[in-house]
Each structure stands twice: as structure tokens, then as C-alpha cells.
């Protein structure tokens, strides 16, 4: 879908958002995004706002409560709310907007368990999480690639070793494939398309975590390296609004019961 903003303006906006997210996170970033017009962007041009903001959250490692806003925009909820979201294992969480440290068990994100919630239309929110997962996967790939170029064994960078190249290439293919599912125009069944896009993004992020960890080796396990933070983050984001495994099973079960598959992409 097209947007009325020209390419130069989009590039300037992306640069501003990237610099803002590189220096701020959490409630502080919420306030900064509000000043930059996040609410208006989401309402007026969600096809630009959602991919851009959520992808950059993944690439920079920052976090904000903007997923709440996407859900509330979809269901017509009161701005500033914290709608319950389904999480892995049949549990429910809310994304806190208040100041304070995130729960370290949940990837450093301010998520709090709640007794339960009500299922709602979350297609846009699933796509938003998909972009966040893709951004995180690209950040992990960048870290692994740079390490492969810098790390020398047997007198040459490990980036020259075929096994390393294969892992990096497989990661890139997974990321590009997931991004393609997030950008295709929806022909029909938007809910189904959103579930598959979220599943593909979750799978790509988990693939990136696995391969990039192998490329980095022991240093990737240390608290001093940024990789482990991205891995913890994608494990949490994959579990929100349906994990890659759960969504794949749900879609497969639905298609088997239906006995046919709808056209998802116009080739």
C-alpha cells in the first residue's frame, strides 16, 4: 500500500527515530515518540508507522509500549490503556506503561501477568510484532557478521570459512523471507495472513538467534555482549500473540478443517 510521504521525508523520519531509540527506552521513549507524533502516524498512516517504528525497535534494542497503541487503535479502545495480550503457555500479560524496570524474566520488558483476557482482533498487532522480530533478527545478524569479519583463526577471518558463511546466509534468507510475508498486499483472509506473517517472523528470529549464537561462540553467552539481550527479547516477542509454533499449528488445523486454502498472495 502506498503512502503520501515522499522517500526523502521517510528517510529523515527513520534517521530521527533511530537516533531517538538509540538513546532512550521504556517510558522515556514513550514520551519521545509521543512528541514525534506517533499517535497521529499510527492513525493516519499505519502502513508506514508500524513497520518503521517496530523494525527500528528491534534493530536498536530499545522498547516502548507502542504495541498497546496498535491493539487499541484496532479495537477502538481508550488511548493510554493496557489491553491484556495472550502469551505463550495459555497465559495473559499486560504491557505496563509506568516507570520502572522491566521483568528480567521476560526479556527486560515491562510485562505483568494477569488472570485472563478476551480474544480480539490482533492482526495489526501481530504484524507489528513481526516487524519487531525482523528488526531484532537483523541486529543479531549484524553482530554475528561483524564478529566473523573481526575474529581471526589460522591466519584468516572466520568469515572466510564455509560453515560460518552458511549460517549467516541461512539467517539472511530466513529474515528476507519473513519480511516478504510482512510486506505482501493482503488479497483475502487478513487474519490468516497476519498469523502466518507473525509465525514466519518468529521462526526467522529464532533461526537468527541459533545461528548467530554459533557464529559468536562463547562470547555470545556473556553479559558484556549484546547478543544475549536480543535473544532474550525475541524469545519473549515470539510468545506474545501466538508463538511461531502455536500459530503454525492453529493455521494448519484450520486449513485441514476447512479442506482448502485461500489465496493469500496475488502472483
Automatic annotation (TrEMBL):
Pfam families, per database record: Acyl-CoA_dh_1
Domain Acyl-CoA dehydrogenase/oxidase C-terminal: 130-242
Recorded GO MF terms: fatty-acyl-CoA binding; flavin adenine dinucleotide binding; glutaryl-CoA dehydrogenase activity
InterPro entries per the UniProt record, alphabetical: AcylCo_DH-like_C, AcylCo_DH/oxidase_C, Glutaryl-CoA_DH_mitochondrial
Listed SUPFAM superfamilies: Acyl-CoA dehydrogenase C-terminal domain-like
GO biological process: fatty acid beta-oxidation using acyl-CoA dehydrogenase; fatty-acyl-CoA biosynthetic process
Keywords assigned: Flavoprotein, Oxidoreductase, Transit peptide
UniProt xrefs under PANTHER family: GLUTARYL-COA DEHYDROGENASE, MITOCHONDRIAL (PTHR42807:SF1)
Protein name: Acyl-CoA dehydrogenase
Source organism (scientific name): Mycolicibacter terrae
Amino acid at each position: 500500500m502506498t503512502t503520501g510521504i515522499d522517500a526523502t521525508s521517510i528517510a529523515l523520519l527513520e534517521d530521527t527515530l533511530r537516533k531517538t531509540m538509540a538513546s532512550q527506552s521504556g517510558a522515556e521513549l514513550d514520551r519521545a515518540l509521543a512528541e514525534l507524533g506517533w499517535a497521529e502516524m499510527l492513525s493516519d498512516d499505519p502502513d508506514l508507522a508500524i513497520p518503521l517504528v517496530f523494525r527500528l525497535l528491534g534493530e536498536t534494542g530499545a522498547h516502548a509500549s507502542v504495541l498497546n497503541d496498535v491493539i487499541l487503535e484496532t479495537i477502538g479502545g481508550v488511548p493510554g490503556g493496557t489491553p491484556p495480550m495472550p502469551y505463550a503457555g495459555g497465559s495473559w500479560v499486560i504491557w505496563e506503561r509506568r516507570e520502572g524496570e522491566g521483568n528480567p524474566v521476560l526479556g527486560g520488558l515491562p510485562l505483568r501477568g494477569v488472570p485472563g483476557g478476551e480474544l480480539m482482533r490482533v492482526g495489526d498487532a501481530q504484524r507489528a510484532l513481526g516487524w519487531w522480530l525482523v528488526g531484532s533478527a537483523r541486529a543479531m545478524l549484524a553482530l554475528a557478521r561483524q564478529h566473523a569479519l573481526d575474529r581471526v583463526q589460522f591466519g584468516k577471518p572466520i568469515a572466510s570459512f564455509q560453515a560460518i558463511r552458511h549460517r549467516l546466509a541461512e539467517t539472511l534468507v530466513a529474515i528476507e523471507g519473513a519480511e516478504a510475508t510482512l510486506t505482501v498486499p493482503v488479497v483475502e483472509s487478513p487474519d490468516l495472513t497476519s498469523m502466518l506473517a507473525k509465525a514466519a517472523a518468529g521462526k526467522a528470529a529464532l533461526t537468527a538467534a541459533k545461528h548467530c549464537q554459533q557464529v559468536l561462540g562463547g562470547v555470545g553467552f556473556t553479559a558484556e555482549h549484546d547478543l544475549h539481550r536480543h535473544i532474550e527479547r525475541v524469545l519473549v516477542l515470539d510468545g506474545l500473540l501466538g508463538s511461531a509454533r502455536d500459530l503454525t499449528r492453529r493455521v494448519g488445523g484450520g486449513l485441514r478443517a476447512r479442506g482448502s486454502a485461500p489465496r493469500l498472495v496475488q502472483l
